[in-house]
Amino acid sequence: MIKIAIDAMGGDFGPEPIIEGVVQALEEKSFLPVLVGDKEEILSLLPQYYINKVEIVEASDVIDMADQATNALKRKDSSIYKAVELVRNKEADAVVSAGHSGATMTLATLRIGRLPHISKPALATLMPSLGNNKTLVLDVGAVTDCTPQNLYEFGAMGEAYVEKTLDVKNPRVGLLSNGSEETKGNALTKEAFKLLKGLRGFVGNVEGKDIFNGNVDVVVCDGFTGNILLKTSEGVVTTVFALMKQYIRKSLPAKIGALMMRKKVFVNMKKEVDKDEYGGAPLLGINGCAIISHGASNAKAIKNAIFQAIRFTQTDVNKEIETLLTENA
Prior knowledge:
Elements: E1 3-7, H1 15-28, E2 32-37, H2 39-45, E3 55-58, H3 79-88, E4 94-97, H4 101-112, E5 122-129, E6 133-138, H5 148-165, E7 173-176, H6 187-196, E8 202-206, E9 218-220, H7 223-249, H8 252-273, E10 281-284, E11 290-292, H9 299-315, H10 317-327
Helix pairs in contact: 1-9, 3-4, 5-6, 5-10, 7-8
């Protein structure tokens, strides 16, 4: 049975939504959660029926969001350190954390280690696009200063992840630039373009709009650009929904139309752009699986992050990443 180590104490709202998310996941899938944190507090939140369906690992320390990520290696009694160690020691197949993202990335990279052909891991996230598809964007924050080799490796990781976990045959990989022409871009993207040509799925430069129009399955960029892109997209979604509500309230015909569409159009649209539907972002390139969730994750987000971890483990993404990189070595 697949074992998922879960940092039960990380997150903005403490262990309650995390435990609830674990329970919801257990109701839908068969796996063994290993909850890491304050045993007494975990047991107080865990329904009696589920006590025998989980394992608990005691951890006396919690890395706060305000703490320095660089100190994570010294805090061996923290919940995230112990959760990562379970994967390092092959006592769990994956780790899920909604705690300090920097600490999680640092520990996962240094304690679990990188894949043989990966120089730096990348944080990947799914973005909504037309045609009921999703676009994987990486990196969105793990590596702010990238080399062309990093971007090439990101392309291989993205191609492997989409093909294995989303069942996309022959995924299309694009390099984010300020124009689709090969001559466009800065020094970094121009050099990365030459390397990415070696990937079988590479289709060339793409623009920001291509993330959402279904033209590609994977978009590669440095972590600085990707993080700004991610947060800007979240802001746009929030603003669009707020404007829709604002204008609907001002018009009676609009109110009637909104009422008629509420059950189908609005519900489906909200589901497409809801970050909780994805649960978290996989840290690709490590010799294991780590899913990093938002600090404000609710139970639904935690459940879906666990499902991501299970899917990753079942599909052997890391083997495919190594195959792609070895082909072009």
